[in-house]
Amino acid sequence: MANLFKLPTTLSISILSAAWLCSAPIHARAENQGVLHATLTNGLQVVIVPNTLAPVVTTMMNYRVGSDECPTDFPGTAHAMEHMMFRGSPGLSGDQIAATSAAMGGNDNADTQQAVTQYFFTTPAENLEVALRIEATRMRDLLADEKLWEKERGAIEQEVAQDLSNPTYVFYQQLLQAMFQGSPYEHDALGTRPSFDKTTAADLRKFHNTWYVPNNAVLVIVGNVQPEKVLEKVKEIFGSISSAPLPARPEYNFSPVKPDTLKLNTDLPYGMTAVVFRFPGAENPDFAAAQILSDVLSSQRGNLYGLVPDGKALFAQFEYETLQKSGLGYAMSGFPAGADSTNLLNQVKEILVAEIKNGVTADLVEAAKRREILSAELSKNSVSGLASAWSQAIAVENRNSPDDDINLFRAVTVEDVNRVAKKYLDFDHAISAILTPTPSGKPISSKSFGGQENFTSSENPNVKLPTWAEKLTRQLPVPASTLSPFTTNLPNGIKLIVQPEAVSGTVSVYGRIKNNAKVQVPTGQDGVAEALDKLFACGTKSLDRLAFQKALDDLGANESAGTDFSLQVLPENFERGVQLLADNELSPALPEADFKIIQPQLAEQVAGELQSPDHIASHALTTALFPKGDPATRQTTPATVQSLTLNDVKNYYTNAFRPDLTTIVVIGNISPAKAVATIEKYFGDWKAIGVPPNTLFPPAPTNAVSVTHVPDASRVQDKVTLAQTLTLTRTNADYYALELGNHVLGGGFYATRLYRDLREKAGLVYFVGSSFNIGLTRGVYQAPYACDPPNVSKARALIVSNLKQMQDKKVSAAELQQAKLMLLRNIPLAEASVDSIAEGWLARSALGLPLDEPVRAGRIYLKLTASDVQSAFKKWLRPENLVQVVQGPSPQ
Question: Which end of the chain is more exposed for a tag (fewer CB within 10 A), N or C?
Answer without folding.
Answer: C
